[in-house]
Every structure is written in structure tokens, then in C-alpha cells.
Amino acid sequence: MLQPEASKIFKTLDLSPKGLKAEFKDLKNQVNKNQEDIDNFQQKQIDNIKKLQNFMFMYPLLLAPKMTEKLQELKKCTESNTNFKFKVTEQAASELRGLRDSGLIKIKRPYKYVSHLQRDSQYGQDYIDLTKYCELTKLGEDFLEKLAKISTETNN
């Protein structure tokens, strides 16, 4: 699905849970010297990059429903200034790492690692307030907005 567009711009393209790694092709020799040709070529490249960005945004949609629910609850509790009671079991820690590694949440300072949350939760024995430890990133907020829009369009 991505290959036809990506092959026009990228020499290599690596998509993983850690992000996107790309090496661009040398495109200097693919345009004539007149400004109109250059403008048209640049617009095509911009359009191709936008298509790629749309695909990249869809990548996180592959999240498990449990992970999406965690994001939604974190957003709701943060906005309403209420506690998100959460036990950080080994499974929950793994899901939080996935959300963090996808760039959808970040760990608040002074905490650095999901293991700090696990420790404070007594490894899933006690509840912590997840809103004190984690926050949505811009990408996380955009993801939830896009997901809500898709749900609304699907239900109409």
C-alpha cells in the first residue's frame, strides 16, 4: 500500500514501533531547470509526503483495544481532574511501554521509566493515579481525535 508512493521519494524506509527511519533519494536530476517544472515537481513530492503522513498516522490505529481504552481513560481523567486508578501489573506495564514507544504518551517527571510506575504500584498490588505519572502527547491527542471522528463517521 505504501510502496508505490514511498519508492518515489525514499531510497530506504524502515517502519517499526520505534518510529520511522528514512533515507531520501537524490532528486536533483529529476527536474528541468524552469521554475514551473520545479514547482510542479515539488508539489507532487509534497502530495506524496502527505499521503505517507496519513499512512503513518494510521499506523497507531493497529493498537489493541485495551491500549486505546487506556488512552481514552487517561484523557478523560486528565481533563476532568479525577484520579485514574490503575494497577501496573506486568501486562499493564508492557502496554504502557507500547504506548510510550509509539509516542502516544510520555512519562511525567520526576519519573523516567514505566518500572517506576510498577514499583509505586507494588508491581500491580496497589492502585496508582496514572494521571500523576503519564500524559498524552500531541500525537496521542491527535490519535484519539481521529479515532473519535472515524467512529462518528462509521456510526452515521
Can you walk me through this structure?
The structure is a single chain. With 156 residues, this protein is α+β, with helices and mostly antiparallel strands. It has two domains: 3-61, no CATH class; 64-155, no CATH class. The protein contains six helices and six strands; from the N terminus they run αββααβαβαββα. It has helices spanning 3-9, 35-58, 65-80, 90-101, 114-120, 138-155, and strands at 10-16, 19-24, 85-86, 105-107, 128-129, 134-136. It has a two-stranded antiparallel ribbon with strand order 1-2. A two-stranded antiparallel ribbon has the order 3-5. It has a two-stranded antiparallel sheet with strand order 4-6. α1 packs across α2 (35-58) and α4 (90-101) packs antiparallel against α5. The longest helix is centred in the N-terminal third of the chain and has 24 residues, at 35-58. It is elongated, with a radius of gyration of 20 Å.
